[in-house]
Amino acid sequence: MINPFYKYSGPFEVQKLLKNAEIENKENFKKDKIYNVTDLVTATNKDLTFFHSKKYSLLASKTKASFCVTVDSLSQFLPKSCKKIIVDNVLLSIAKITKEFYPNSIVDDFDHTVKDISKTSLKKKVKYGKNVLIGKNVKIGKNCLVGHNTIIEKNVNIGSNCSIGSNVIIRNSIIKDNVNILDGCVIGKKGFGFFPNNEKNIRYPHIGIVIINENCEIGCGSTIDRGSLSNTIIGKNTYLDNQVHIAHNNKIGDNCIIAGQVGFAGSSTLGDNVMIGGQAGVSGHLKVGNNVQIGGGSGVINDIPDNTKVMGYPAKNLREFIKNNR
User: Fold this and answer.
1) What is the set of active-site residues?
2) Where are the domains of the chain?
3) Which residues contact 74 (CB under 8 A, 6 or more apart)?
4) Which one of 41, 180, 233, 247 has the minimum C-beta count within 10 Å?
5) pLDDT for 280-310, tens place per residue?
6) What is the share, in percent, of the chain residues with pLDDT greater than 90?
7) Is the dihedral of CA 303, 309, 313, 314 positive or negative?
8) 12-106 fold
């Protein structure tokens, strides 16, 4: 699906797309067209995807994408229906391609379209404080509150019975019913994605959005980054304490409780009914199972199976942790 939240410049003939992105390719793809760039799971036969780590070989083997940017050593895992674009640096190449499709997704400048809420059609529908600004394509449901000095930038959909605190910034997000977002939160800004370079770091486009499902609470000063090529998702009835950071592409399950100052690196998945103590950290590209409990101050650097209690750095089974720290 083409992302409606960002300016779209496709579709492209594959040869022209690669040329525009300055990607060398030995194959001749004639006049094959690509309509979008996305991840391995959500890709259709009109899309281009990428595959950069053997960790995702099972997902790669099932992708429906017509084209995949990858390295030669991983191409064997892709289905025959998926044409391979072999490169030296997969992530850098896919960043260049994404920028061609969505040229405005590389930056996060302030939204110059915002107006004072009193000058919009929402003034009679929403109870609001002073100095509330609203961008284009913003929808807000019934019985909602918006606090002082809050900015809801373009491309935001907020459900009914929601409370948005003061000094909040929201963009590129879908917020379902009965959600509380407390003071000072920033939701939907781009993630911390770039390629280090001695002269000038190369930014990675972020074309995903943030989805916060029903009955959630987001504590004061928390930040939730939008996804790069997939969405950042918070499950139903999940509560975040103050100063929690959730990086791009994370998927948080239902009924989770996350205490203050917990940080998530990008692209990890949390199951349902997970509890995390304060100041814990979860590294990127990990899978944390259902009904997991993570002790405060822990550092999670490996996958955690269902129904497990862990603590320490690196996080290990709670019984083992207690035994080693008597």
Assistant:
1) 248
2) 12-106, 115-324
3) 51, 52, 53, 54, 57, 60
4) 41
5) 999 999 999 999 999 999 999 999 999 999 9
6) 79
7) negative
8) 3.40.1390
